[in-house]
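Need C-alpha cells for this chain, all 255 residues.
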Amino acid sequence: GAGSDAAALALDAAPDGGGWRLTGEKCWISNAPEADFYTVFARTTPDARARGVTAFLVPADRPGLTGTPLEMLSPHPIGALAFDGVRVTPDDVLGAPDRGFGVAMDTLNLFRPSVGAFALGMARAALDATVAHTATRTAFGGPLSGLQAVSHQVAEMATRTEAARLLVYAAAAAHDAGEPGVPRRAAMAKLYATETAQYVVDTAVQLHGARALRRGHLLEHLYREVRAPRIYEGASEVQRTIIAKELYANREPTA
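Here are the C-alpha cells for all 255 residues:
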C-alpha cells in the first residue's frame, strides 16, 4: 500500500524472543513467487517512518511465507507475498535494525542506472528498427527517409537516445568511483533514459504504422515492455523530486 511513499511501508515485524515475526502482505515483488530468497523491508519500530525500517534476507521456504504470481501487461516475473508470522532472526538482518531504509536507498542508487541501461537498450532497438524501415519503405515516390517530417523525427530519436546513453554511463561510472552526487546522477539517468525510451518506442511505432501493432512484431513487444520502467525503482515523479532536493540541498549560499 505504500507505493512511492516507501517510508510508509506497513509490513509488521513484531519482537519475538531474540528475533521478529513478520506479518502482512507485499505486492509487486520482483521474481515472486519463484525466488529462493527475498530481500524484505519491514517495520520494526512503529510510527518512525524511515528510521524504523529493517531489511531482512528471508528464504522462500520459511514457514508462513506464501506467494502468488501477478499477470502483468508485459510478462515480467512479478508477484505478491503473504507473511503469516514468518520468523526472522538477527542473522537474517541486512545492515542493522532500524537502518534498512538506508540499505534500500543505497541499492536504488545502483539499480537506477541499470534500469536506465535496460530502457536505453529498448530505445536503441527501436531506433535501429526505424532507421532500417524508413530507409527501405517507399511511399510518395521514394523512401520514407526522404520525407523531412520523417527524417527529423528519426534525428530527434537518435539525439535523445545518445543523451540518455551518456547520462546512464556517467551515473554508473560515478557510482563505481564513489564520486559525490550519486543519488542525483542516478535519478537523472533513470528518469531521462526511461522517458526517452517511451518517446522513442512510441515514435517508432508511429513511423512503422499498423505493422508495428501486429502481435509478434519487435515494436509490439517493446511497446508493452517500455511502460513499466517509468514506474518501478522509483516513478519518474519521484526521480524529479530527488533531483530537485539534491540541487537545493547542495546549492551555494548567496551573500
